[in-house]
Fold these 2 entries.
Entry 1:
Amino acid sequence: MQIRILVTGGTFDKEYDELTGRLFFRDTHLPEMLRRGRSMLDIQLETVMMIDSLDMTDEDRAMIVTRARDCDERSVVISHGTDTMVETARALAAASIKGKTIVLTGAMVPYAFGSSDGLFNLGSALSFVQVLPPGVYVAMNGQHFRWDECRKNKATGCFETV
Amino acid sequence: MQIRILVTGGTFDKEYDELTGRLFFRDTHLPEMLRRGRSMLDIQLETVMMIDSLDMTDEDRAMIVTRARDCDERSVVISHGTDTMVETARALAAASIKGKTIVLTGAMVPYAFGSSDGLFNLGSALSFVQVLPPGVYVAMNGQHFRWDECRKNKATGCFETV
Amino acid sequence: MQIRILVTGGTFDKEYDELTGRLFFRDTHLPEMLRRGRSMLDIQLETVMMIDSLDMTDEDRAMIVTRARDCDERSVVISHGTDTMVETARALAAASIKGKTIVLTGAMVPYAFGSSDGLFNLGSALSFVQVLPPGVYVAMNGQHFRWDECRKNKATGCFETV
Amino acid sequence: MQIRILVTGGTFDKEYDELTGRLFFRDTHLPEMLRRGRSMLDIQLETVMMIDSLDMTDEDRAMIVTRARDCDERSVVISHGTDTMVETARALAAASIKGKTIVLTGAMVPYAFGSSDGLFNLGSALSFVQVLPPGVYVAMNGQHFRWDECRKNKATGCFETV
């Protein structure tokens, strides 16, 4: 089974700029994370954008939808900021992409930090995408949700069923 | 969905004894790993034993089978050393436990080390156990294998289909 | 020999707020760092403030000077943001505190990040403070500088002799 | 000031072999540690051997003494296993090397582990070596000891004055 990972940025990939003291984006950490996880999956990795999901526009979402629809793989994982993950999931669902399982995931803490949940979530999303039926899902907190059945709880930082 | 995690030790949980310079077992790191992963799953954690899987006897395996069969949950993840993971999977399959999805996972590098694959594998196993049909599986390297379709490649440290 | 550590914040102690995605201060990481370093030094730890050194006012500096002067210990390490470390060193020197060795140190990357220089700098500052003659010093990049002989190079993030 | 670091192995540099599950030596982590510490010191790094200090023979010690004596630098840091660090310090002292400050240091936990004291000890040893008068010293636990005034407490893993 071939899997496409579409990288869009989000907390997952934020780094600390030691000269300015701010968080920023450089390259994605996904290749390093896949190495650490000893992944033997057949993965095509593609960086679509590297942005904070709060800055994501409709055009950005349209581009993600296009890439998810047009890529060859039937299993697609999208790394994404958690704040608007559900919005992008909705845009993907609205596109009615046939025969593809699409799983969005992200992290609450940047991978570059010792305490990141990123590796756990990546292992989770890559597993769900292999076995869930076609559709658009969010994989966070060890769980999976259909795109229209979840929201991020801003107070706890966790995803929950609506 | 309720999930039972049966802890048996393995590289996952090895620690460095700074007085002797040897690796040893103390408490399981699973609770810390679930916290790091921000898991919101309904998990019952049970330490069955804390041993190197090379030291596992038939009696040990029988105890693991008993716990997997007798626990209330229909979804069971077993943390296990990789060297004899497939043997334990075989013992579980031989027990013909009805209606349960059992997923064994482990790590090549102890969680206490910076470079561990443990968190990735745990996220993976917990995801597979929620969606795979009843049966006994191994989840390693981002993949899942039926118990009778995999082996550990000693040269690469990776699991592969037989 | 007794050593006083005055904590003032700085990058050393910044943490990632996973709900807001911003860096912030909570408790100091110094006790954890001393444990990790297996420090057997006789240390009194005192949090004077927890702020970014760019936000430090003259009143803040006066308070640091007061605490450095009034504490019982003759060896004082001050954890401090790097941006205005030299300014605080100058304020300390201006106070003409007799018979005390005062060493300021900090970090370019928060201790909570995997790649922090904090532990190295702390080991360095605690060592210099035990053996340097009375005076005010900056300990960064493995080096020590007299307060009036260094500056932070904003382009490289390193301290250098002026 | 130029500093020579003589690498001899020890816990500092032990790594986890994921195929055998054993600790072993490969390359020294010193260059990576110096980068993490943002060291701006003028350092010549030389790997003399990579062994467990319990396996160190008289010939090995003679080689370390030779290198410490013959190198151009007057400031020498030696990374060393803690178990026989004091023995090597004694051998160095017996050689009556004139005009050189020699500081031995090590770690209780390998640098490759998240919880290592190595970076703290390295920052400490590199600082002491710049300011202590000629002689042979051990730098551990944030402290420095003359070679004939310390021992490792096997029960606590800490160095103490005799």
Entry 2:
Amino acid sequence: MSAPAQLIPRSTAGVADRMALSAATATGVHIDTGEVPAWLARHRHGCGTQVRRIDFAELDHWSFAADSGNLHHSSGKFFTIEGLHVVRPEAQWQQPIIVQPEIGILGILAKEFDGVLHFLMQAKMEPGNPNLVQLSPTVQATRSNYTKAHGGAEVRYLEHFLDPDRERVLTDVLQSEHGAWFYQKRNRNMIVEVDGDVPLHDEFCWLTLGQIVRLLRLDNIVNMDARTVLASAPTAPAEPQALSSDADLLAWFTGERARQDVHIRRMPLREVAGWHSDERAISRDDGRFFKVVAVSVEGAGREVRGWTQPIIEPVEAGIVAFAYRLFDGVPHVLVHAMVEGGFLDTLELAPTVQCVPSNYAHLPAAQRPRYLDLMLGAPAERIRYSTVHSEEGGRFLNAESRYLIVETDEDTTPAKAPPGYQWVTPGQLSWLAGHSRYINVQARTLLAVLSTGAADLGRGTAGARRLP
Amino acid sequence: MSAPAQLIPRSTAGVADRMALSAATATGVHIDTGEVPAWLARHRHGCGTQVRRIDFAELDHWSFAADSGNLHHSSGKFFTIEGLHVVRPEAQWQQPIIVQPEIGILGILAKEFDGVLHFLMQAKMEPGNPNLVQLSPTVQATRSNYTKAHGGAEVRYLEHFLDPDRERVLTDVLQSEHGAWFYQKRNRNMIVEVDGDVPLHDEFCWLTLGQIVRLLRLDNIVNMDARTVLASAPTAPAEPQALSSDADLLAWFTGERARQDVHIRRMPLREVAGWHSDERAISRDDGRFFKVVAVSVEGAGREVRGWTQPIIEPVEAGIVAFAYRLFDGVPHVLVHAMVEGGFLDTLELAPTVQCVPSNYAHLPAAQRPRYLDLMLGAPAERIRYSTVHSEEGGRFLNAESRYLIVETDEDTTPAKAPPGYQWVTPGQLSWLAGHSRYINVQARTLLAVLSTGAADLGRGTAGARRLP
């Protein structure tokens, strides 16, 4: 009793080919790549937004709950800042953490112009961005946003993502965000293709992937949300060979996750040990890691006229780095199976190094994070990518990190990786980023760089800071 | 600076081919398939185990905590029975739930004899099995087991799974278990191949996949742990075409997971509303779903001499069924994106129907689970597979369900599936079962049946209850 039906190929290799064509197209139909930074700056000046640090007491509709001390909004929406207790065999700690259980949408609209995919990017202001306005996905909306919990305007283009025709969805996957700052946060990373005419609003522009690649080499231009969506797309070419088979890589990952003994408990912010608060900040007693502070956003002129909010501010700039090697000519990067307290499931694959170096400056070298000194001391001729990016400006204030790809060698990073580390190809990373909870958000930024060709791999010159 | 290295192919298609050869091999080197049920029965009689229902007060080392009322072991190990509060937009409920955060190992040892993979299966007694002894994986061990929290004997063959050579691992993936009864439980599903001699202990036998397939057609022979490990193996052939591409299937899954609004909270067992307890059981006031009871296991003679434990007992036998159709000659089954309160992440893909029918017998047809009546009323000539299997006998008492695969048609189950349902091929299910948290444990039993060829698909006769 076989029914006639329209079967289609399970594999959609065509999408990766079209992404590759777009990545190879350095000129778009809409705006010159070199003009994008100035276009963003115009929007920064145009919006006239000022971000000002304020006392917690000046927060509007935000307050510390009488019982738990948790910082929350009077509507019950947006997010809360609560406490987290993480217990591992070798250490235990308590910390504030952002709790925002709803799943947001990070969506990029795609459309062919002259046979080449272009992506609709937004000049979006976020208060935590060091330069306020960065290149963002078409849609970046929490559920509170699009159900209008803060009484804001419509989210433009949202309708394309709320109920899309599945066959036009190029990618759609739930991805984690920062496990050190967010409790089990995940967002939907989507790219949806459209055929018909789409109105072009003022703060938006169509760019090829090749244009975005060039912008990824500039400091603080492409925001985190755009980077993670690009990393989730099927862009990286699949190498047929690698140091490990895909099955061995999954087995290693399972073993790493299974061997961890991590106990996580949410707790009242009031009771978090080792932290203290004053009028303007909740800080660790030893001054390390991050602070919770409050800002006022004035004259924003986009969704609402202005607002106040708590925000997390790291104490110093971070470093996020992949060790990179060619084995038999095939690129590999060294991933680290890393536990973060806020992960829904224990650990994900992180870059070789991911930390704020100043947190460890007082420690002897042997107690600093593995490979940190190798990355900090990398000679210029080994640096294949070096660009400063900031994290989500809606929740993190000036959370800048230098993202590095450093070519290393057998002496410093042998082919047989130490426990907790593994050499993988960009194609393997991209394959895993097609599913949830394998690749953490910092590694996804570097994957976006690797899979689109934004790093100068194997050419011996740093790719950063060159204007396209 | 490319280093010479031993690259290997990323894809290991060879494993699937060797699994297929084993599935096609109906005769093994060790024991006739037809003798396995008697061999299991001999072990049942040999172990002399008696399982007796007891009062909670007769539990040894188990007690209800003074504050929470949670049922726990004095060692703090094994598991606890606590309360769970599940809130969804359309309903909210409270229930007891098993909390067992540690990750166990379900491992099958594989070895070639005469060029064909055989699998080392165990005749294992578990108190909740209706027939006590079933065919089980080589190793079935909680962390408490192998760290000897209950002072038991060594777990045989465990060393092959604790630190295996990755290249001999045929599959290794964390899989969820029953989300209605377990809080965020997952186990490691492993198949590890060995070359050298392996001592053969009395309660073990080597079987080809073809032999296990025939045993999967008999009631209560192959235990749940063996079924889920087999489902996680790369056995199903990958169809090149399907009703949906793999990318569309993932996009649909992401949309289903993202649209759910589920709030889960653990709570003290004492405070669970709608349930009551007496000396021998914790039951729902309306008698539906399941009970928590206690058993004494006497004369077990395996790891320890005897023990007592709490255990979950469903109120009636269940039904677990896939609607099955051929589209253009390609087999598809209808999966249901199903929320279960104990899932780590909201929902997983379940069979078309999965429930205990008596829980709904009092409701009008329109309020019973979708497709339940279709499955209960399926005419014999549409039934492609029908076998009774029981769930994990270490935690569930007499938890039997009839597992069905029923061929349906366009009238009852159209090619365009309703919201929350999707047609997928066995190859797509198998692909997803290679990762965590896509396919729930009941669907994995049916996947083991589908991917090994244990169902008589397209042949029009029921495959169940025929002795091989």
